[in-house]
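Title: Prediction job returns without error message
Component: structure pipeline
Severity: low
Priority: P3
Assignee: unassigned

Description:
Job completed but the reporter wants confirmation the result is attached to the right record. Sequence as submitted:
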Amino acid sequence: MKTVEIGSKVLVDYEGRLENGKLFDTSTKEVAKEGSIFNEDRDYQPLSVTIGENQLIKGFEEALIGMKEGEEKEVTIPPDKAYGVKRDEFIKMFEKKHFKGLTPKIGMLAVMEFSGYARPARIVEVQEDQVKLDFNHVLCDKTLIFKIKVIKIQE
């Protein structure tokens, strides 16, 4: 029976949850509906990934290695093998003038240039003439729990 290894192209179904059980992502339409995260614009289907090409968070990829076709398991992935820990240097102030035609509000998402790239960020503070943005991933500092199933290991 085939086993997932570095270089394997794999089809995987998954459910991603926070430690409190809240679903944040899935490849399955029915699970998305049950977890109240269904998006009608999304095409729910198994994830196709080549192991070793850094297409996944480290802990998810490590969990797949050694699995067989049809195998299922649940893994707990700490922040350092998921989206990392919150970094203060990823929190930046911008002048309000950069938000033309938009009234910044806490919690809103904005796309701004950071480290030479346009990146999404959450507005975490609004002052009279400045806005504080957090470029850390929304799932940083979180331990993630994934149910994963290897659907197919492709040649």
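Comment from assignee: result matches the submitted record. The chain is about 10% helix and 40% strand.
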